[in-house]
From TrEMBL:
Enzymatic class: transferase
Keywords, alphabetical: Cytoplasm, Glycosyltransferase, Purine salvage, Transferase
Gene Ontology cellular component terms for the protein in this record: cytoplasm
Protein name from the UniProt record: Adenine phosphoribosyltransferase
Record flagged with keyword Transferase: yes
Gene3D superfamilies: 3.40.50.2020
EC code: 2.4.2.7
Domain Phosphoribosyltransferase: 34-149
Entry's localization field: Cytoplasm
Protein purpose: Catalyzes a salvage reaction resulting in the formation of AMP, that is energically less costly than de novo synthesis.
Subunit structure: Homodimer.
InterPro entries in the record: Ade_phspho_trans (IPR005764), PRTase-like (IPR029057), PRTase_dom (IPR000836), UPRTase/APRTase (IPR050054)
Length: 178
């Protein structure tokens, strides 16, 4: 695997957002670059376990990554959405934020019992949303054994948190010290 420095160079860093002292890693600039986005999807696709049956993307940028991987691999895409976005019967999982809680949901029956589901998002920081995604897919009967991200902020511990849940985590780019 390449060191992905070419992709890292396409990610904009915004200092002091959303609050002073934070370096926000903005993947939107990577998504704007056609060849960079294509390389990102190709490199992530090469990491996907061969027995994967479904790609789950977390709202909202995770949808972009999941759609690209779903297309590249010929697999379906499961949407993990914020509350109030799904019209049918749904299940949900709550997770902690710095101040308060949030929730993600999915439609009942969109995961077959025992179906192997890959979880993807653009970035993993503390791992709260990703852990809720794993819980939600498992609650729906799916098996989650792998998660892929474009960016990892390893100092925030999210990838380690997922690994402690038995998930193989792979990321293209690490931004240390964030």
């Amino acid at each position: 695997m390449t060191d992905n420095a070419d992709l890292a160079a396409l990610i904009r860093t915004i200092p002091d957002y959303p609050k002073p002292g934070i370096l926000f890693r903005d993947v939107s600039t990577l998504l704007l670059d056609g060849p960079g986005f294509r390389a990102t999807i190709d490199r992530l696709a090469a990491l996907v376990a061969p027995d994967t049956e479904l790609i789950a993307g977390i709202e909202a940028r995770g949808f972009v990554v999941a759609a690209g991987l779903s297309y590249a691999l010929g697999l379906g895409k499961l949407m993990l959405r914020k509350p109030g976005k799904l019209p049918g019967e749904k299940i949900g999982a709550d997770y902690a934020l710095e101040y308060g809680t949030d929730r993600i949901e999915m439609h009942v029956g969109h995961v077959r019992p025992g179906q192997k589901v890959l979880l993807v998002d653009d970035l993993i920081a503390t791992g709260g949303t990703a852990s809720a995604g794993v819980e939600l897919i498992r609650q729906g009967g799916g098996k989650v054994e792998q998660a892929l991200f474009i960016v990892d902020l390893p100092d925030l511990g999210g990838a380690t948190r997922l690994r402690n849940q038995g998930i193989e985590v792979k990321c293209l780019i690490d931004f240390e010290g964030d």
